[in-house]
Amino acid sequence: MMRANRMLRTFLASALACTAASVFAAAIQNDATMNKTQTGSSTLNKDASSAIQSWPTTTRKTAQAMIEKYGQPDGVTDRMLVWNDKDPWLKVVVYRDAINQGAFMTHDSFLENTVNYKVPLDKVADLIRFDSALVIDETRGTLASSCDTEGCNYLALNLANDIATGKRDVASAKDFFKNTMTKSLSGKSSPEMEKLMFPTSGSSSSGSMDESRPVESNPSPSGAQPSQPTEPIRQGY
User: What domain range is 32 assigned to?
Assistant: First the structure.
């Protein structure tokens, strides 16, 4: 009988110890999870202006300009700022580190603008040949351009649409891009650098725009611009 009582006491003590250990482990796990969550949220909620203080001058100035234009970003990390659904863009991203695009016209890429746009599969290769800084996402039905200004991205996306809809070939689009960028550097404005010249609302866009706009496979060397239609949207974080 005494032996049975000792065994019972040993069993109960063991069970109690296991229960205490489990409760202690659960408490530690819960505390670690809360700390991790708080740390993650503090990163996401970090003030954008303070996050970009250590950025290189060029990207910091552009980031500050976007903050003034679009307000506080939806996402903030040490490497990028992200805005969602800022008309006409589906997504706007400013990266801390610029990437030099050694394309047909060398420029730094750190400002990315995305629109809802379904690129026809048979035009994907042409768009890549036109500008390697274009980002085509067939799954999500989006098209993005990365450059150093929004005006440059407007121009690249407008010309990408011209190629996708057969209104320009790659060579003429490159020529128009060069001519227009050169003019902008001398202070001359261009509507292609001020707004999207095609509709993008919804992911059903497939390169369609105003059919009245003429096809211009061989524009004049002066870079004369064809008649223009109307306007326009960029992706999630």
Answer: 1-45
